[in-house]
Amino acid sequence: MESHPWVPNSAQKIFCKMLSEVGVKDIEDLFDDIPGEVRGKAKMDLEIKRPVPEYIVWRKVKQILKKNRSLLELKCFRGAGCWPHYVPAVVREILRRSEFYTSYTPYQAEISQGMLQALFEYQSMIADLTGMEVVNASLYDGSTALAEAILMAKRVNGRSKVLVPRTMNPQYLEVVRTYTKYQNIKVVEVDYCRETGYMDRDDLQNKIDKDTAAVCLEVPSFLGFIEEDPDEIAEIAHSKGALFIVSVDPISLGILKPPADYGADIVVGEGQPLGLGLNYGGPLLGLFGVRDLKLARKMPGRLIGMTTTLDESQRGFCMVWQTREQHIRRERATSNICTNEALCAVAVAVYLSLLGPKGLRKLCETILYNSHYLAKQLNSIEGVVAPLFKSAFFKEFVADFSETGVSVEHVNRELLKRDIIGGLELNRYFPELNNALLFCATEIHMKEDLDYLVEALKEILLGEKHV
Length: 467
What we know:
By secondary structure, the chain is an alpha/beta fold. Helix content is 37%, strand content 14%. Helix 9 links the parallel strand 5 (212-219) and strand 6 (243-248).
């Protein structure tokens, strides 16, 4: 067989020559750096043994895809960093316009005025939400935004320790540890009050010192509660010359005060709730803002600005700051992030434009009502304590099942049989919460959905008692 001009590696002769050129005998040798235990060894059985018409393949693929189940069939009460929110149809309709959809990650050379303006509007709205003076044109996701904020804090004050809450999103913490492992940054966890969930102020005072680059806080926390008096934490951080980094759920800012009001120097967050949907867990969007232009000099990412022509007759947009410099400065670069989620930033801009301040507040009130109603109903079930922490919460809360004598793993298995995705099992991350679930309720949950979950739990727990 001869090689085909349009199909790469189509001839065995060419294939073997390429392997020889790179010094290996088999294509599997190219993947030797991947541990054997995580590599699949079985060959895929597509049940198609011979060439068949495209229609037959299409039918087979559709049969396989029918095994997947979406939130159209399942009721989801799990958030934990990626939450079930409604995405208005117009958001996706605008994103599908070719002017936006075909732009991979536009940089100055190929960027259009339309995309520049959309990103400028995104920056402006996130700045309004957070109270930050400068917001960049997005990063990968909330976890990498937090990690980049910690690296930035070290650049600002040259220190090598960062304090994070014990209740921090464990996946965020894992990313932070990965980023800081070879940056000579020590990540130290601050304990929390078992009754309220709040950061332990005494433990914070004992652990902060002159080598602390930053103190981090999540609002709302990963466990759903809202830290009381966060300005106290800001004061403790600033008293030692450390920066105060706040990681937010941006949708909550329709009802909670912006981080700027309680002393945040850097604000990061996950933009997924603002019009992105779940999308199998991605793509996501990293929010990143700083309190002033002085800090912006150390900020990763890029900034879009608005200007005018020399005679001031026409308005224009341009990229005024870009730190994609790893190809020049290498290890001295401000950031080694090579791209971003520009299309996701446009989605957020469209979403926030649709809602406006009043719409966002009304949405938050709905989420607040739904989550508190669910917690109250769960707490009425014998043996269930919800919420576990005696503190205000938004969207998510911890429900403890210890007194029921039934494991949360069993509860979730039984819920799934009833087409319900239950709460996150917290014992895998917090051993002290050994039989607790993190539940989530948003605007997509109708009262009948919440009641259905409660009745299902009653049925499961009552059934176990009679076994």
